[in-house]
């Protein structure tokens, strides 16, 4: 991709030629590589270098059209501007998006967190070694069917015809290990682990390996579980995945579209146990995918979503903020219709608990490690969920793997039924979160 | 007579190829032939280029306004290099000769291969005559025949108005459409040189109804791959009525009581259970990962003798129909299971190299950023001899799954499906609507529990996400009976 100043100059030049006076461009360029192995041999290696931009054009009636393109050269930008201009005459006349009022607000200068990529041979060597260690961790582990070591460098930018110009770049390296067991007379069992860091040198490979091995081994001895109501403890990853599936609770655009479990009047109401507080914080120091601005150029920031059980704020784009008399929060995704999505959750205890709980002393508690098939089992507009999970029945700290079961409930009821928010947070790709205890959820086993 | 002059590596930088930018045609033969030869000269066992151009648009009507029109233009290419059973895939946006050569060089380098010396001869590949499905099947004019933006908007607004008239307790109503026009060119070192144009269109409704604390959300989608007039021909009145009726039934539904039940699954989209619980496990990708219980079961009984199943790319207008796959192989009809016996797997090139199962024209991908993988096309259970009424009459207490949601299957064969519209069956009769049901089970076990198939085979459009991205597929089946299955609920 050309550098951003060049793209800005080309866009301005072509816009002028086409008689377009108001436009903005959001773009990104990704350079990535990944490797997979199969019992010590390289399986598939992938590499990619690609760019794309999304162009928005306002016509003289101030309606907007968009076009995205992967041709980020003069010809491609001209075609995109032209197509967006044509589309603008069919754009919505009410609530048309506008530039973010904060698109030119100064942002503290952060140096790009870009580390040189490792050689493919280095990635392969590491992964072959890790796979071998995992296969040797237990005789029952016969395969690591899903594995991958990836590195990615991403550069993103936003510019508009009023002089906004922002860019940032970042690199990430991630490792995924998912191992499978086979034992005579038993069902295959599997479990996985994931780690991400800015570079290969900083990647917690041993931690990932150890977690994948321990979890897989812990599922070797499994039992069916009777159907019924149980006290459930969600792992940080499981709770964050469920919260993410119901993020329409905080999404101002979904609220404006009547496709949320909240309404504008929900702000200030108690939607969860006072034991719970939830923040969204793109700039969290533990967030590897930290972004300083959203797709409209609005600076990101820490936003309180639930404070001691009370719904405190919604996530906004510039447009949703304007309609709901709020400030943009830096959560916009550019498009013909601007979307809103969270960046990185930070979940922590709210008010002080009257009683604490501990897995080492609890009886008949289900610890849910990983929720599956959220795309199928979550009815985000109804508030209900019914999901398969990996987990254990815990008695006095003794864990017994559960063979196959689902957990079901209503997410709003779940938030209110939170018994305890443990004090220690864990870092996951979706945020930082402690284990969350919930009373009386329906479990279907046998 | 003298042979054609031989090309040496040092001459390549000076070559002046002029392939057309806005069309994949014969002008791409020379540059791709040279690059394929360069890859082979470097020691690759097999090299393949996949070129793609996309002209996509989506349109969304919410309530009484068009809120989204999103055109997307994309071009890109991927080069795949095999060395033995290992392969590398590199993709790029840069379709210039230099850009494609850089991608090839990167792939060769990753595979540990070095470019031939400057004086080395480059054996350009003798590609077949361009196998041009786009021209042969009259697809060149399809894009121009599709509905323009203004017409799209008008039809969607009319459709959404029809939904408003049919439904009650509406909280949100949406009508959507997309048109995905894709031109692809495949050139490979085994001589494959093939071009196609695909036109995929889809229309859909999404309705959310709410009354107090009662809520129901119903989505419905239809799709087509061959008719530029698809949107114009959309009978949205009928669809609106069906969606409104489903939402009305489900608004007051009770939560299903979890347990083990016999179930009757409706035809058409009910086929998602076979797609997820069995179809994926018959892809050679799963054999490569050893994540299918069926990997060594070819020729053996893996399902109830009442079950026969197909996967094919040939049914006219079906959502998973393709003239050629994304590796340039013509689509075929593949018998998967016949009377319970496993007959074939679905295989792409890599799957064939790594597992030995023959290619079936099933190498598919979302786009140029993905290497092709063995994927389903139109997959369905063949019709049986019963009537739906006979299936229903065989159940004392069970669940009728009229409308399925999504689902997935895990690496150990455990599957799950959401049921969007379900009813209780008592003494062979439907008695009341139920919500919140999830079907869970083990693929290997469930296949032997599909004991009755009715005569009313129907197909439905769907999307399938897997290793090579999201692709368009058809699922299908007649009404079927599953003798017992675990139903997750409250």
Number of helices of chain A: 9
Mean pLDDT of chain B: 94
Coarse structural class of chain B: alpha+beta
Number of strands of chain B: 25
Report the β-strand fraction of chain B as a percent range: 35-45%
Query: What's the gyration radius of chain A in Å?
Result: 24 Å
User: Biggest interface, which chains?
Assistant: A-B, 74 and 73 residues
Structural class, judged by helices and strands of chain A? Answer: alpha+beta
The portion of residues forming beta strands of chain A comes to 35-45%
How many domains would you count in the coordinates of chain B? Answer: 3
Terminal residue distance of chain B: 83 Å
Mean pLDDT across every amino acid position of chain A = 94
Portion of residues within helices of chain B: 10-25%
By oligomeric state, this entry counts as: heterodimer
Range of helix content of chain A: 10-25%
- Main sheet of chain B? 7 strands, mixed
The total of beta strands of chain A comes to 23
What's the layout of helices and strands?
The complex is a heterodimer of chains A (446) and B (490).
Chain A: H1 4-18, E1 22-38, E2 41-58, E3 64-69, H2 74-88, H3 120-136, E4 141-160, E5 165-181, E6 189-197, H4 205-218, E7 222-223, E8 228-234, H5 236-245, H6 252-256, E9 276-281, E10 302-307, E11 310-311, H7 318-323, E12 332-333, E13 339-340, E14 345-349, E15 365-371, H8 374-377, E16 378-379, E17 384-395, E18 398-402, E19 406-410, H9 411-416, E20 418-421, E21 426-428, E22 431-433, E23 436-444
Parallel strand pairs in A: 7-18, 8-15, 14-22
Antiparallel strand pairs in A: 1-2, 1-4, 2-3, 4-5, 5-6, 8-23, 9-10, 9-14, 10-11, 12-13, 15-17, 16-17, 17-18, 17-19, 19-23, 20-23, 21-22
Helix pairs in contact in A: 1-2, 3-4
Chain B: E1 7-8, H1 29-41, E2 46-62, E3 65-83, E4 86-92, H2 97-110, E5 121-122, E6 131-132, H3 133-136, H4 142-145, H5 149-166, E7 170-188, E8 193-211, E9 214-224, H6 236-251, E10 254-255, E11 259-265, H7 272-279, H8 284-289, E12 309-312, E13 333-338, E14 341-342, H9 349-355, E15 363-364, E16 373-374, E17 378-381, H10 388-393, E18 397-409, E19 414-426, E20 429-435, E21 437-442, H11 443-446, E22 450-453, E23 458-466, E24 469-477, E25 480-488
Parallel strand pairs in B: 6-8, 10-20, 11-18, 17-24
Antiparallel strand pairs in B: 1-5, 2-3, 2-7, 3-4, 7-8, 8-9, 11-25, 12-13, 12-17, 13-14, 15-16, 18-19, 19-20, 19-21, 21-25, 22-25, 23-24
Helix pairs in contact in B: 1-2, 5-6
